Amino acid sequence: MELGGPKGFVLKERAGGCPPLSVTFSPRVLAAQFRERDVLEAVFRFWASGEKGPEAFPMSRLWDSRLRHYLGSRYDARRGVSDWDLHMKLHDRGARVIHIREFRRWRDTGVAFELRDSSAYHVPNRTLASGRLLSHRGERVAARGYWGDIATGPFVAFGIEADDESLLRTSNGQPIKTAGEITQHNVTELFRALTAWGRPRASQGYPMEVLRERDGTREPDPPSQDLLQGTVPASLRGLWV
């Protein structure tokens, strides 16, 4: 076995009269692999709160900065812009279940779903952070911030359609359930289906059960692709920025 070479690492080995096996690793490839590993390690450390303090990822300030950049001169009229975006870009395309109050709250604060008291949301979601190279005084510097969706919101993924038709009922032309409540139902059903997948069931009438051809036992169907990918209708695809 020989290790070394002018263009990187060359591994040569002879076994049983076979011809030499040579594998070359370019220094450029190795350097790229090390850089990617270092970047991944930094991301995981950041997610695990390796950097303490609220200034490590000041989500409120970053969200407001993203909103100001998106709205520009319309920032002072952001409440009216929010209502316009909801009615003209979402309601007119079939997502009428999204309530104006929950959409306004998300547009103003970045919090889309509140399952408990709003004061409990004081830890930012660090997985939403991303990096960019920005120009500062003529130099390119790396900056961490939030450059995700600021226009559509996460409601269209699981919050506008449901298998349970009772969740989509209306009263006096208004939906009786919010997109947040429908999202909670759909995500709960998704986790329930994933948990039940592969477990044999004794009941004969369970709608997700199929009969195995080999041993005659029953097992749940795997979750459908529509359920795994969300319930976004074709008219709402392509709205993310």
UniProtKB/TrEMBL annotation:
Pfam families membership: DUF4471 (PF14740)
Name this polypeptide is given: Dynein assembly factor 3, axonemal
InterPro entries noted in UniProt: DNAAF3, DNAAF3_C
Domain Dynein assembly factor 3 C-terminal positions: 33-204
PANTHER family for the chain: DYNEIN ASSEMBLY FACTOR 3, AXONEMAL (PTHR22118), DYNEIN AXONEMAL ASSEMBLY FACTOR 3 (PTHR22118:SF14)
Organism phylogeny: Eukaryota, Metazoa, Chordata, Craniata, Vertebrata
UniProt record, GO biological process: axonemal dynein complex assembly; motile cilium assembly
Name of the gene this protein is made from: DNAAF3
Highest taxon listed in the record's lineage: Eukaryota
